[in-house]
Design brief:
With about 100 residues, the protein is mainly alpha-helical. The protein has two helices and no strands. α1 runs antiparallel to α2.
């Protein structure tokens, strides 16, 4: 009977050691996952900020582009008015092309 008790005690000790090992490994893996999640959340926040900044920049660029187009239109209309007052049309076409290329 003592031998049976001894075997049972050894088996319990082995199981306890294995269980402790399992708990330790599980905790280590969960800690790694938590660290990865934290890094992922930080990366997502950075990306959200970047997209918001890029969106604002795109909106500002769009506004500037529309303003530039309006300015080109005003210059073009002025030049058309000048050509009606006797200035040559060929010079007007060259001027328009120069303006259009400059503002692209």
């Amino acid at each position: 009977m003592d031998q049976l008790n001894q075997q049972t005690s050894e088996q319990q000790q082995q199981l306890t050691t294995r269980f402790d090992s399992l708990v330790f490994e599980t905790q280590r893996v969960l800690n790694q996952l938590a660290e990865r999640q934290t890094r992922t959340e930080s990366t997502v926040e950075t990306l959200v900020d970047s997209v918001a900044r890029l969106t604002r920049n795109a909106e500002a660029d769009s506004i500037r582009w529309r303003e530039t187009q309006a300015e080109i239109r005003r210059i073009w209309e002025y030049l058309l008015g000048q050509s009606r007052n006797g200035h040559g049309e060929s010079s007007l076409k060259v001027t328009y092309i120069t303006i259009a290329v400059t503002y692209k």
